[in-house]
Amino acid sequence: MVLALQRYFVPVTNWKTDVVYITGDDVHHISRVMRLQDGDQIICNHPEGKAATCEIISLTKDSVQATIIEWLNESVELPIDVTIAQGLPKSDKLDYVLQKGTELGAAAFIPFKAERSVVVWDAKKMEKKLNRYTKIVKEASEQSHRTKIPQIMPVLTVAGLIEEAANYDVLLFAYEEEAKREDHQSFGTILNKLRKDQRILVCIGPEGGFSQGEVNQLKENKFLPVRLGPRILRTETAPLYVLASISYHFEELRWV
Amino acid sequence: MVLALQRYFVPVTNWKTDVVYITGDDVHHISRVMRLQDGDQIICNHPEGKAATCEIISLTKDSVQATIIEWLNESVELPIDVTIAQGLPKSDKLDYVLQKGTELGAAAFIPFKAERSVVVWDAKKMEKKLNRYTKIVKEASEQSHRTKIPQIMPVLTVAGLIEEAANYDVLLFAYEEEAKREDHQSFGTILNKLRKDQRILVCIGPEGGFSQGEVNQLKENKFLPVRLGPRILRTETAPLYVLASISYHFEELRWV
């Protein structure tokens, strides 16, 4: 929503001392879509999360050369590392979660097969789709001016998800029923305890939510149930509520 | 995401002392889609925001009769009355804002013609689309178990929007540039000052955002600029961030 220099993610190998080489689809985007020329400026994102303003010094059919003018000192990444584990939803809802979740600052996405996931899904199918998914998160990262592209992990089972949980400090799952219990911790209480360097894994059930078996499994493995407001959210809306709330709490609330 | 009784919005005129009459599309939904029968229970929403558990006592091709078993005592509506003014976006993005915005608790939507709105739009076109829009917010209200259906207002100009502003306590517009200024109030600071009975109007620019002229106009008329996190959000994502943050702040943060 603000007019700014176009951004491109450039692989490590294409960064030289003071020059950046852009290749692949981005060349077409620079010359044909944006119609940029020698002397025009762009922002190049380094995979390590740094970004630099660069000036185009040469354009050919398959590569663009730009000189680094200055390294930017920005912090547009969420101070909390949030991974969204999404129960495989129907139709193209996963595309949508990847695009919006990237805009809202997710660090990674883990699609998982839940009991109530109706889509048939296997490693092969994921492989096929991975190219599109990678393109979606790359473009959403550029559009939202992020300096990191979220990771998309292979499809897991709930058991696999529980193994993966060992890599996180805080484990949550969306489960509004829980909110009715006395000993329930609100999402706000949980975020208040979170420290800025921590990693959080948030699991969202598919259409129909988690089965009772899955709920028990998650609870037994230290996943805390959270309510995302008193209204029932669709499976593709829940991760956006989680990410927007975390951004609001740590980036806009500024109560400390 | 929780299995619960199906909800139907029933116009005032169809509520009798202890019986409710359901007519129109919902009859088909009850008998054919949900395959409900005599003795099955549903929740009927009264336009005033009340809801009751009802038991079906008769089904015909064009009407369903149900007795009121008990009035529910629920509060699933946002404690703040939030109206989203959406700069007319491209393609079907408005459908999307209406559906997700309803799930997230919006009280009303005002589409408006911004300088950078590329879609051609007139009262006629709106009239045509209004049926679909009304259906979207009704179904999203039912699905998210809301007790009120958000209002969809006619398309306004920015001037019209500024007139409309007289009906609200707090006026905001999404404008990340502003966040760079020293005297800027964060979204959190603004929500901290908000009282639970107040009405808030939040304006979101179309693709390309607000023009400088519109920004000045809005500021001169007491609209406060807010940043929605440091990342650049698409026009259809911004209202979801606003609503999720307000829900989080007033329904889940519980810091008082």
From TrEMBL, chains A, B:
<feature type="domain" description="Ribosomal RNA small subunit methyltransferase E methyltransferase">
    <location>
        <begin position="77"/>
        <end position="246"/>
    </location>
</feature>
<dbReference type="InterPro" id="IPR015947">
    <property type="entry name" value="PUA-like_sf"/>
</dbReference>
<dbReference type="GO" id="GO:0032259">
    <property type="term" value="P:methylation"/>
</dbReference>
<dbReference type="GO" id="GO:0008168">
    <property type="term" value="F:methyltransferase activity"/>
</dbReference>
<keyword id="KW-0808">Transferase</keyword>
<comment type="similarity">
    <text>Belongs to the RNA methyltransferase RsmE family.</text>
</comment>
<dbReference type="InterPro" id="IPR046887">
    <property type="entry name" value="RsmE_PUA-like"/>
</dbReference>
<keyword id="KW-0949">S-adenosyl-L-methionine</keyword>
<keyword id="KW-0698">rRNA processing</keyword>
<comment type="function">
    <text>Specifically methylates the N3 position of the uracil ring of uridine 1498 (m3U1498) in 16S rRNA. Acts on the fully assembled 30S ribosomal subunit.</text>
</comment>
<dbReference type="Pfam" id="PF04452">
    <property type="entry name" value="Methyltrans_RNA"/>
</dbReference>
<dbReference type="InterPro" id="IPR046886">
    <property type="entry name" value="RsmE_MTase_dom"/>
</dbReference>
<keyword id="KW-0963">Cytoplasm</keyword>
<feature type="domain" description="Ribosomal RNA small subunit methyltransferase E PUA-like">
    <location>
        <begin position="22"/>
        <end position="69"/>
    </location>
</feature>
<dbReference type="InterPro" id="IPR029026">
    <property type="entry name" value="tRNA_m1G_MTases_N"/>
</dbReference>
<protein>
    <recommendedName>
        <fullName>Ribosomal RNA small subunit methyltransferase E</fullName>
        <ecNumber>2.1.1.193</ecNumber>
    </recommendedName>
</protein>
<dbReference type="InterPro" id="IPR006700">
    <property type="entry name" value="RsmE"/>
</dbReference>
<keyword id="KW-0489">Methyltransferase</keyword>
<dbReference type="Pfam" id="PF20260">
    <property type="entry name" value="PUA_4"/>
</dbReference>
<dbReference type="InterPro" id="IPR029028">
    <property type="entry name" value="Alpha/beta_knot_MTases"/>
</dbReference>
